[in-house]
Amino acid sequence: MVRLRNLSCRMFFLSCIFACHEHQARAAEIPLDIITETDVGSDGTQYMFGRLGIKAGVNGADAKEYLFDTGSDSFNIAVGMGGSAPSWFPTQAGTPVSAPHGYMYGDGTYGYLQSDTTVSSVQFYNGTTGKQVADYATSGGLRVALIQASIDTADRLNGDTPGQIIPGTTPGLDPSQTYYQDLTWQQTLDAGQAPAEGHFYGIMGAGDFIYPGDNGGVPGQLTKTGYIVEANGTAATPGDCGQGCLIMGLNAALRAQFFTQVPWRGVVGKFPLSGANAGYQFDVMFQYALDNGPKTVGMPTLLDSGTPTIYVGSSALLDQALKAGITGSDGAPQDVNPGHTLSITGSTPNAQTVTVTTADGNQGDQSALLTVGSNPYTPDGYTLEGISFFQHNAVMYDLEKAVTGYTPFYVSDSNFSNGLSITNAMGPLGLAGVISGTQGVSVESGGIAYLTNANTYTGATSVAQNAWLGVGGPGSVAQSSTVKVDGTLDIAHSDAGQSIRSLEGAGTVVLGDSTLMLSQASGTFAGSLRDDYTDGVTRPSVVPLPVLTGGKGQTHGGLIIAAGQETLTGNSSYTGKTGISTGATLALTGTLEQTQVENAGHFLNNGTTTGLVASTGFVNGTGNFAGGLSVVRGVVTPGDTSNTLGTMSVARNFTLGAEASYLVRVGSSAASLITVNGKAQLNGGTLVSTVTAQTRAPELGQSYTILTATDGVQGQFGKIESNLTGSTDLYPFLTTGVDYAKNSVAVDVARSDIAFAAAAQTRNEQSVATALDGIAPTTDIARPITSLNFAQARGAFNALSGEIHASARTALIQDAYEIRDVAIDRMRAADCMLGAQNGTAKTAVHGRLKAQDAHCRADEGETLWMQAYGSWSHNGKTSNAAGLSNSTGGFVMGADTSRIENWHVGMLVGYGHSSFSANGRASSGRSDNVTLGGYASTHWNRLALRMGATYTWNMLSTRRTVAFPGMMDRQNSSYNGGTAQAFADLGYRFDLGRVMIEPFGDVAYINQQTKSFHERGGVGGLHGYELDTGVTYATFGSRMATSLHVGKAVLIPGLTLGYRHAFGALTPTARSSFLAGSQDFEVSGVPLVQDAALVKVGVQTHLTKRLRIGISYTGQYGGHYSESGLKGSLSWVF
């Protein structure tokens, strides 16, 4: 409500300094009551107008409702002329009361007759709940006025009963006017009812101004900093106040809520008690426009919550209205017809515009009634904004900084500790309190919120589609677990940028001049980061545009990835810098349209950057660096982090610094590539070429283009490194060189200085590798090995070695035992040695039967015989040679005679087949064996001597597969060999009852010879040389046998136990060379066992006088060696 001392003093404001009083001010949120009043116009139409009320008490007395009026500068309390103070104003002994004076409003024809005094305290209450919300005790006393009477001129009583005449000579009144007491007002008060408008017990002045001699508004007396008045809340507005609120005390978070802050026209005094600044009544300058027409010049304006309508005292605006025909008849003032718009803008840069749609003053809500032109309340050049301004905005009276701010947001200083969900029904919210706790903040579709305090909640922050969240001033959501933006996040009004942990969603982040820092990035953001709301980004009408410093070409908002990894898949257009800290990662698959990237961490660009990228960290990807790339330090490599090859594009210039490295990944047929549509400048950095296990090996002699530049390549690399050389796990036999051309750089693959022999660990590997080192590396047999690592190379050496040719000699020497054993058994059988396989003999002695009674007699004359055999053996692998499995089988037949004095002499012939395999070398072979030999035995009583010699023609064939990366070969060979042996057996027989025991010792010398050969197959074929090997065996043991009668049959079980020791060349070798041409090399096969145990067990039976059968098992066991043999016999004696 406008309050003027008199009409003339409205134009003149005096500056006055008041004494400063000590006080204790406390910030508080005090609810304001929204009161709607109705009245009847001159034409009988009912209309409404709004009021703001506040529930307060003084000196601890009962609370009453007061009109809350920012157009007044005094707290006026209705006490009347009853002679004693009412209960709501308890008397206070010793408190002085001034003489009555007039306190007039509006055009000076109505007001109060009142006296001034002080109160020691004031209490504020929630008008709905009745709960006290604030209590201010003042040692200096709060200045108030006691209303003794409501006074009016006769034409203003409006039907109320006039009372006594108040002389115009009373201070504060116009002497030319006659004033009357409003008796109806007094009677209503005496009845215990609110005398003013049926609601109020007076007026609580809340203006930020003060007249000389006036008390000063209550907020100005109680706070040094300032206060906020608002009536723009909704029924769903959260917080402690509700739809209307008075916030006492300002801080940085509250001040930051006000996007527009209009400076006062000047400080003209100090409030009593607080000493806070006070301004003019019409203290701020605003501009006005009708229907978006020309704006007025700045007009001093009073924001008056106590006035229900709007008065714009502008003759220029009146002329516009008259010309547009949107007012009544000529003259001033005029009410603007309903349905038109009034734009209200603070006279300060970038001020927000408040728009009011005019209403009919005779009906509906009078808060939108607009009167233009000079009038009794606002002469030409002044404007009075009534309650409608507070219904659209929160208004901040900053006494400390001498500015008045306004914002369409409903501002709350309330704290929230259990999360917050902001909906459209709440209206735009300005949250200056602290949000804490473990729950999060969500802004639902249509919701609008602006945070300006350092919030501590740790839950997630989410902004839904068609929602808006601003974080400004000192505000922060830095402790929120993540921020998901599908609507709009605006940090343009932040004091020092914003820090959040991580960013997700697909919405828009508006930066303004602020920098967004991601402190623990872990999300993917598919939306856009930008400086402002251009390019079709939706901005709620209540949200101001960011204020961007500088002119065209200036940079603004920025982004910092401080830790973790953030992925950007959308298109962003902010112009400030993008920083990537050490240890942090930015993965881009979208576009950074204008920003310059400064990378000290990891920048993975699979999208497009249009600004310069300067890196001191690690930069990779397959994207486009459209603004150029400068690698000052660190590493650049095309491709992703999974070691795959890739191509990186640079649309302008590329620079590699002296402290930087270009990491080139080399594959089997291609390499990493940087294509530059400009100039490439190499300032002596390092070229690092690498091949990993995830890519196929490069090949010797290949050349890979790694850099092209349309405007030429200048400079060279200062150092060349490669993990091909020196790492046994990769490709140590290769190295790289560099080939510079005018517009390109290539990497050439060459043979390294590391010999193949360096990979060898065994004798065979060393032998083969040494031979390969003597071959040109470009040959078909050596080239594949150059692309192997050490472990693979050892496999290749063993595959190429032809080890099976040496191991075959072991198999044939071991097979000679079968022939030797058959011959000794035959000689023992001829001498009727119990347990010998004589049952296998088919004998005829000049037509006479050799046996007549199932008892053996020594052979006389000539004998023909035959024996079958078979065995299976395995020689275990060694550190040098693979294990060998062997099987052999065949038969031996012979003839002998005993007619040479005391000797038994015979000849034998045999055929056998041997099959052997070394699976560890993917090799196998076989041999067809034909044997010819002779034998002789004699005895001296119980002492027997048996000896013989044989020669076996071995017809060998081998097959082996040579397989390793880069080669797949199959080799075959056929060649001859021979196995010669001579042996002797000495035994002494004695009997223990029915058991025969013959301790024995035998010795055998075996010589195995193979001829030369040529393998047939691929490039890994060998030429083998003729070789022979000699081995001596000595065996000691005992033979035991007995005979048993089972019915008419005779069973003869036998057992032989022995120990065998080998002498000589136990490890066979093969000397070869590669058919492709190489020096000779020698490899060894699986060795013969040196010490073995011999076990032989069998049984024979004479089923009839003529029919005999027998079976025996022979086992030989040694270290990593075992052999099992089986012999069976069936014979018919003639």
From TrEMBL:
InterPro entries: Autotransporte_beta (IPR005546), Autotransporte_beta_dom_sf (IPR036709), OM_autotransptr_brl_dom (IPR006315)
SMART domains (alphabetical): Autotransporter
Domain spans labelled Autotransporter: 857-1134
Pfam families according to UniProt: Autotransporter
GO cellular component: outer membrane
Protein name as annotated: Transporter
